[in-house]
Design brief:
220 residues; alpha/beta; Rossmann fold; 4-stranded antiparallel beta sheet
């Protein structure tokens, strides 16, 4: 069971999501006014679902305000299929998104997959080139300098680094990291890889290579 925060200005959507996820044993807190989230004890929640289009404060703005306070998965709900909006949202630190209208089974699968990922216990450390991974802390360093990766960015980096030189398609990365498959995999992985590259570039490392027409590999 998990404590899940759902923020949407549509009461009907809130009730739908709460009814669906509570059947899996989760405790759901529903909030209609995004500004009210800032009054919450945010570390109480293991996952958050934020609608994008809300009056007063969008889901993007809310994510930007709270991301440095929480490290749980954040999923966007959006009726906007525009690539630019989705990419922008992931760049703010969100982990995934679902486009409305969504299939109930996919909502359940995505939520459960992200929660399973969070519950994995890891205690090993390993090094590839100048990059050092500490799996229990989900932390990565280049020499002695920490790389400020989000959890999803770390998981993608860990997957590729553990299988150094092996090429993974976007579909394979999405399924391996998030534990489920959905139509959003392409945009999600492309944007996360872009952000990872930018962060490693600050330490003058370029570990993720594109294998055109196939996917990505770690080649540091």
């Amino acid at each position: 069971m998990a404590n899940i925060l759902v923020v949407d200005d549509d009461p009907g959507m809130l009730d739908l999501i709460a009814n669906v996820l509570s059947k899996n044993g989760h405790q759901i807190k529903k909030i209609e006014i995004p500004e009210d989230v800032l009054k919450e004890k945010l570390d109480y929640y293991q996952l958050m679902i934020l609608d994008v289009m809300m009056p007063g404060m969008s889901g993007f703005e809310l994510c930007h305000k709270i991301r440095n306070q929480v490290d749980c998965p954040i999923l966007f709900l959006t009726a906007k299929a525009e690539e630019a909006a989705i990419i922008y949202g992931l760049g703010l630190g969100a982990d995934d998104y679902l486009t409305k209208p969504f299939v109930i089974a996919e909502l359940r699968a995505r939520v459960d997959a992200h929660l399973r990922r969070e519950s994995r216990q890891k205690s090993h450390a390993f090094t590839v080139g100048n990059c050092h991974f500490f799996m229990s802390r989900k932390a990565c360093y280049v020499d002695d300098t920490p790389v400020a990766l989000t959890k999803s960015e770390y998981e993608i980096s860990e997957l590729l680094a553990l299988h150094h030189g092996q090429v993974f398609s976007k579909e394979q990365i999405y399924e391996s990291v998030f534990g489920a498959f959905g139509e959003s995999y392409n945009s999600v992985i492309v944007e996360h890889v872009k952000n990872i590259r930018g962060k490693f570039a600050l330490s003058k490392e370029e570990p993720i290579k594109t294998v055109w027409g196939v996917g990505y590999k770690w080649d540091a």
